């Protein structure tokens, strides 16, 4: 049987037998679709006319001046329709779902950006849509829950375990197995069983392709370094993939939560062991009995104990370096970008910005650093408000 | 000969259906788990599945999820389950299968896990998130038939049957419905046809599982299956009788007698 489902030892298809035939059909349909000129034309049409691509590569001059190192550019995925890179992938998978004759869509979501993108696409293509979301995330991301409902999607709360993305994903897999004959599962990151990691990367690599040509146009050369946050890792895979063979330093930023040496972080690459969850073999946070540990991050989108298998492969092969940023550092970077550039970034992206500030300082003034601004932060303003209140409380005590 | 294979051959000769049950190790607690195993063996359950609790059981419905979460909270682990089997083996020879998720096996270490299972007297493994394509790592250590890896087949598996049958040993775990364990009255529309097709392709016993609550559920399928697997319904009985498992054992005996 076919063995091309892995990145080195990572990836694979660790799912119940019920789903295997569907994965095989999906894999074949994907291979056909991406070679089909009409399919790619339709995909590119929606990216341009509906999503609003290409997204700008913006020179952040005030931030650059403030830091005093490399020239900092922001890849503005926050300007996409629905406010994040997630929509790129959703449009691709929805077109594939249509091609396969599926009429119902399910998805999982953490921060809600993938859920909103899926609900948006489902409305656009007139498909019935259910989004699984942990109840804790529903609380943290109430605005996105409301947006999904306005778009006609059903948001199905998940009350198991941590009530976050891990449980929402497990529940979506269960629902998918039950309804596999008429339902397409749109996974929101480069995770899950083959072909999902490859498929999601395929629909996100537009970010890196645009970045390369925009950098050539604006600076006459490729960036010297590129930074992106990683939870599951789709925005990072999207911007990294087209540059893997180029002389560009690539850096992924994990969420260190309350600190990488505490138990409350989401650093599956730095602190995880090889394991199997949600259909894939990758690095995974787990306890002494092989049960999956809970992740922690102030950003719901990074609050996941696993990571895309291609990132695990890129880490081990040392092509990409992975670092981590704490909640506190991410919030500081969030504030700084608001004030210096008039851009409210997603808390996820704020992790990339926080590391970008450190990195830019070490670089020369004629070097170029691109930070992938994967989404906008409207959804996070309440979280920031609560965080600031807590900090104020700590001072008073 | 492997205890599972042996037991199923005897049943076949006697023209009887096999009755396979599932309990969750550590639910309601470790001591009761051992009692449940021994008492079931006494009342004639043919093969026992013991679930190893896992934090993210994607193939299980709410009943087994709840039992698993309680077992984890009680401190049950893969190592302790193997200890329980070891203790049980001193008293009885009932065929035992561990049902667990692949991360649990990987975490233990594949070779050590296989060796420890054989040493403890485990006869089979069911790993619901390890489809055929991913079994090669584990198979490398399953050199004898002392410990066999049971293959699952679902109504969506028809095109994959030749490969699955090629690898199958002991029996085929036939999944009655798409989805997860414990969905009552949800047999797949094409189940009977699927089982008939299976029967024409293999001599292996066909065990039907997922969503079976009473002997009557499988009466219409009696001519195509060789036995049933009952999990969530039994765990429901245990939940109703946590402090007095005699009632649950009585329920099991009744099920077996009416099969």
UniProtKB/TrEMBL annotation, chain A:
The enzyme's E.C. designation: 4.2.1.20
Keywords: Amino-acid biosynthesis, Aromatic amino acid biosynthesis, Lyase, Pyridoxal phosphate, Tryptophan biosynthesis
HAMAP family, per the entry: Trp_synth_beta (MF_00133)
One Pfam entry name: PALP
GO MF, any single term: tryptophan synthase activity
InterPro entries, alphabetized: Trp_synth_b_CS, Trp_synth_beta, Trp_synth_beta/beta-like, TrpB-like_PALP, TrpB-like_PALP_sf
Keyword Cell inner membrane: no
Gene coding for it: trpB
Chain's role: The beta subunit is responsible for the synthesis of L-tryptophan from indole and L-serine.
Keyword Lyase tagged: yes
Assembly with partners or alone: Tetramer of two alpha and two beta chains.
GO cellular component: cytoplasm
Protein species of origin: Natranaerovirga pectinivora
Segments traversing the membrane: none
Record-listed N6-(pyridoxal phosphate)lysine modification sites: 86
UniProt domain Tryptophan synthase beta chain-like PALP: residue ranges: 52-375
Cofactors (names): pyridoxal 5'-phosphate
Family under the similarity heading: Belongs to the TrpB family.
Substrates-to-products reaction catalysed: (1S,2R)-1-C-(indol-3-yl)glycerol 3-phosphate + L-serine = D-glyceraldehyde 3-phosphate + L-tryptophan + H2O
Highest taxon of source: Bacteria
The protein's annotated pathway: Amino-acid biosynthesis; L-tryptophan biosynthesis; L-tryptophan from chorismate: step 5/5
Protein name: Tryptophan synthase beta chain
Organism classification: Bacteria, Bacillati, Bacillota, Clostridia, Lachnospirales
PROSITE patterns noted in UniProt: TRP_SYNTHASE_BETA (PS00168)
UniProtKB/TrEMBL annotation, chain B:
Parts forming coiled coils: none
Signal peptide per UniProt: none
UniProt EC number: 4.2.1.20
Active site: 49, 60
Claim: Protein transport is one of the keywords in the record: no
UniProt keyword Transcription present: no
Pfam families listed in its UniProt record: Trp_syntA
Alphabetized PROSITE patterns for the sequence: TRP_SYNTHASE_ALPHA (PS00167)
Record InterPro entries: Aldolase_TIM (IPR013785), RibuloseP-bd_barrel (IPR011060), Trp_synthase_alpha_AS (IPR018204), Trp_synthase_suA (IPR002028)
UniProt subunit comment: Tetramer of two alpha and two beta chains.
UniProt xrefs under HAMAP family: Trp_synth_alpha (MF_00131)
Protein name as it appears in the record: Tryptophan synthase alpha chain
Originating gene: trpA
């Amino acid at each position: 049987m076919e063995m091309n489902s892995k990145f080195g030892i990572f990836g694979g298809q660790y799912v119940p037998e019920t789903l295997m035939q569907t994965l095989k059909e999906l894999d074949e349909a994907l291979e056909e679709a991406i070679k089909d000129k009409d399919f790619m034309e339709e995909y590119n049409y929606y990216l341009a006319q509906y999503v609003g691509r290409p997204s700008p590569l913006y020179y952040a001059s005030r931030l650059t001046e403030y830091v005093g190192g490399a020239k900092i550019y922001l890849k503005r995925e926050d300007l996409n329709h629905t406010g994040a890179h997630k929509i790129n992938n959703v449009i691709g998978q929805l077109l594939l779902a249509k091609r396969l004759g599926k009429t119902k869509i399910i998805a999982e979501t953490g921060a809600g950006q993938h859920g909103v993108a899926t609900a948006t696409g489902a409305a656009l293509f007139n498909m019935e849509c259910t989004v699984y979301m942990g109840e804790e995330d529903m609380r943290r991301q109430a605005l996105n829950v409301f947006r999904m409902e306005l778009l006609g999607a059903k948001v199905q709360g998940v009350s198991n375990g941590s009530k976050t993305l891990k449980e929402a994903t497990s529940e979506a897999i269960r629902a998918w197995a039950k309804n596999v004959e008429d339902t397409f599962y749109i996974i929101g990151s480069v995770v899950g069983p083959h072909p999902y990691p490859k498929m999601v990367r395929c629909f996100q690599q537009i970010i890196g392709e645009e970045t390369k040509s925009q950098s050539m146009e604006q600076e006459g050369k490729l960036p010297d370094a590129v930074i992106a946050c990683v939870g599951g890792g789709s925005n990072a895979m999207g911007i990294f993939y087209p540059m893997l063979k180029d002389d560009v330093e690539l850096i992924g930023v994990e969420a260190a939560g309350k600190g990488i040496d505490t138990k409350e972080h989401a650093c599956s690459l730095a602190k995880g062991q090889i394991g199997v969850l949600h259909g894939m073999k990758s690095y995974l946070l787990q306890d002494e009995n092989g049960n999956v540990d809970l992740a922690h991050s102030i950003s719901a989108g990074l609050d996941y104990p696993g990571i895309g298998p291609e990132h695990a492969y890129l880490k081990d092969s040392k092509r990409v370096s992975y670092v981590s940023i704490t909640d506190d550092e991410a919030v500081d970077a969030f504030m700084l970008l608001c004030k210096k550039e008039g851009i409210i970034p997603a808390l996820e992206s704020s992790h990339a910005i926080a590391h970008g500030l450190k990195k830019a300082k070490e670089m020369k003034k004629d070097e170029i650093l691109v930070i992938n601004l994967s989404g906008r932060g409207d959804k996070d303003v309440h979280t920031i408000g609560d965080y600031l209140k807590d900090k104020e409380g700590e001072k008073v005590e | 000969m492997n205890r599972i294979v042996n037991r199923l051959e005897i049943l076949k000769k006697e023209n009887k259906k096999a009755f396979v049950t599932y309990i969750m190790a550590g639910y309601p607690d470790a001591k009761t788990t051992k009692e449940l195993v021994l008492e079931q063996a006494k009342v004639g359950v043919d093969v026992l599945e013991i679930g190893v609790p896992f934090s993210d059981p994607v193939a299980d419905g709410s009943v087994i999820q709840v039992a698993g979460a309680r077992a984890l909270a009680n401190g049950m682990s893969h190592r302790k389950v193997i200890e329980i089997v070891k203790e049980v083996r001193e008293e009885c020879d009932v065929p035992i299968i561990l049902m667990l998720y692949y991360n649990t096996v990987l975490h233990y270490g594949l070779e050590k896990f296989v060796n420890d299972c054989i040493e403890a007297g485990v006869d089979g493994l069911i790993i619901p998130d390890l489809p055929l394509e991913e079994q090669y790592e584990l198979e490398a250590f399953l050199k004898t038939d002392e410990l066999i890896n049971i293959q699952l087949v679902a109504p969506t598996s028809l095109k994959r049957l030749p490969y699955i049958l090629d690898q199958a040993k002991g029996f085929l775990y036939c999944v009655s419905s798409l989805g997860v364990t414990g969905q009552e009255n949800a047999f797949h529309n094409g189940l009977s046809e699927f089982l008939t097709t299976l029967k024409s392709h293999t001599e292996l016993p066909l065990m039907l599982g997922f969503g079976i609550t009473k002997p009557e559920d499988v009466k219409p399928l009696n001519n195509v299956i060789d036995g049933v697997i009952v999990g969530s319904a039994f765990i429901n009985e245990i939940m109703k009788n946590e402090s007095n498992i005699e009632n649950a054992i009585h329920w099991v005996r009744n099920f077996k007698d009416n099969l």
